[in-house]
Design a protein that fits this description.
Shape: globular
Distance between the termini: 17 Å
CATH class: Mainly Beta
Number of strands: 12
Number of domains: 1
Helix content: under 10%
Order of helices and strands: EEEEEEEEEEEHE
Strand content: over 45%
CATH topology: Substrate Binding Domain Of DNAk, Chain A, domain 1
CATH architecture: Sandwich
Radius of gyration: 15 Å
């Protein structure tokens, strides 16, 4: 059975314009990807583009698993793979010409291909629609295509 090796709930609320997740040594790769229409997540070398669906704020949780975890029951999910140069990632949000870099998550291995599943939930409740609340939650689960030891 798959086990979580480590996890990080990024403590910072990401303000507007979340672009996605990038390798810390190749953040520009993120700007070669785009999301549009029904496509809210896409991966490429060193990057995972994410669409927060016009929400003003986002929270991200990262998880590293030793093998493929059981799928969760979230509103939306996307699965794929990503090659990461450094094995360290962070969320990137461009705003007013600057780039904000958020908490770093270290997968512990350089130059590797990772399997991943991304979950997205746009918060709403009864009359409090997504547009009123303006908050998106993301969970990213990474696991190797090989067996990962817990040492």
């Amino acid at each position: 059975m798959a086990e979580v090796i480590k996890a990080l709930l990024d403590p910072g609320k990401i303000q507007r314009y979340l672009k996605g997740i990038a390798d810390v040594e190749a953040e520009r790769s993120l700007f070669e990807l785009s999301t549009h229409g029904e496509i809210w997540a896409e991966s490429g070398p060193d990057a995972i583009a994410l669409d927060a669906a016009h929400c003003d704020h986002a929270l991200i949780k990262y998880e590293l698993w030793d093998s493929e975890p059981v799928a969760l029951n979230w509103d939306e999910s996307w699965a794929g793979s990503v090659h990461l140069t450094s094995g360290k990632v962070f969320a990137v949000s461009p705003y007013s010409g600057d780039l904000a870099h958020h908490e770093e998550f270290d997968l512990g291995r350089r130059d590797r291909e990772w399997q991943l599943r991304v979950y997205r939930k746009l918060l709403s409740h009864e009359d409090f629609t997504t547009h009123v609340i303006g908050f998106a939650l993301f969970k990213l689960q990474f696991w190797p295509p090989w067996t990962l030891s817990h040492t």
